[in-house]
Design goal:
The protein has 109 residues and is mainly alpha-helical. The chain is built from 4 helices and no strands.
């Protein structure tokens, strides 16, 4: 895989991670979800900015490791797997978010 393609893949992973963080904070703030990862739950208990920075830092560090190993097939597979997982999380967040928004919206008469 070319370096440019791999960089775009890691950028997509970073964007999906940020979306996951924002949607998680929104759902937790509304009281309809909890953070499943105990380490990230501890970060979230310290406040949303701490949670966001911690989440972006951890995934950013993972991206740095993947970038350093980008010429190895296992790193390429790992990057695609991470994007697939975060994409699936984004779909779940958006799908459930639509139901939450609908449930919280005032009923028009």
């Amino acid at each position: 895989m070319e370096a440019t393609t791999f960089a775009v893949l890691l950028f997509g992973l970073t964007v999906l991670n940020a979306l996951d963080a924002v949607m998680t904070m929104w759902a937790v703030r509304l009281g309809v979800a909890t953070e499943a990862n105990p380490i990230m739950a501890a970060a979230l208990s310290l406040g949303e900015p701490v949670f966001f920075v911690a989440k972006m830092t951890v995934v950013g560090a993972g991206c740095a490791v993947l970038w350093a190993a980008r010429r190895h097939r296992i790193a390429q597979i790992g990057a695609w797997l991470c994007v697939a997982v975060y994409f699936a999380l984004a779909v779940v967040h958006i799908w459930t978010g639509a139901f939450i928004a609908e449930a919280l919206s005032p009923i028009a008469t």
